[in-house]
Amino acid sequence: MAPAHGASPRGQSDLLVIGLGWPRTGTGTLCDALDLLGFGPCHHLRTLLLAGPESKRWRPWDLAAAEENRTRRAELVLQALRGFSSATDVPVAGFWEDLLHAQAVGLLPSSTRFILPRRTAAEWYASAEATVLAGWREGPPALESEHAQRMGRLVWSRLFGRERLQLPQEQKVAMDAYAAHQRQVERLALPGTLVHWAPEDGWAGLCGPLGIPEPGPEVAFPWRHQRGSSVAELLAVHGQSDGSQLMQLGRAALVLVNLLVPVVVLVWFCCCRGHVRAPAAVDKDD
């Protein structure tokens, strides 16, 4: 399956490869690898985060989440992915059933391949609980921001069946949902369209099933963090929509420093005065 950028049959999407894995299953690595293999641009959660909360890219996802008709929902998901040759991570994984349905009804070509990660529920949770789910360890995260509400509606409710989890008490709920997702994708994907892959498989495990040659040695496999958290994932946890939130934190820290510096200087000056011997009084009779 060589990357092809020509026009698809009328009414069909140009998507060639779609990763259906949840966050913390190598989605960032997969996206970078697909870009390098010529299946780009690749859609990822960071695509939406970098676009900002007011971007029009969010609208088809919002509409799809509210749509009850299965085929119309699939059309909206494909509309959200228009202009991309591949996609991974969320919210894509949250609409996995709609994407499989899109292929079944001819909205996606039969040549489109779906990639499912080879990672157990226990392995996934061990990575996710310290990163994308970290905000739920002390209780459900507050959903004040528009972005956090979107994440609850577009991602968590579609993955877990609810917008919030209480961890670690509901660890089993999370792991069971992950395992069920893996089984359902395997059951519903059309024969010959599903590729099982993990980052440790490298180029060989990805290029072989896709029917393309591996890159030369000059193209390094794009390993990402294995247990750390990317900026996009941290933003997803804390409900921040883009880098402007980080800039605001930086500005707030700067203001705080500017307020504290005079206080520190004053305290230091007063302390020093207490340790300096006062000059003797002048004897006027001398």
TrEMBL record:
Q: Where does the source fall among the domains of life?
A: Eukaryota
Keywords attached to this Swiss-Prot or TrEMBL record, sorted alphabetically, are: Membrane, Transmembrane, Transmembrane helix
Instruction: Supply the PANTHER family for this chain.
Output: P-LOOP CONTAINING NUCLEOSIDE TRIPHOSPHATE HYDROLASE PROTEIN, P-LOOP CONTAINING NUCLEOTIDE TRIPHOSPHATE HYDROLASE
- Keyword NAD applies: no
The question of whether Membrane is a record keyword is answered with: yes
- Coiled-coil blocks: none
- Membrane-spanning residues where? 249-269
This protein is called Protein-tyrosine sulfotransferase
Q: What is the organism of origin for this protein?
A: Polarella glacialis
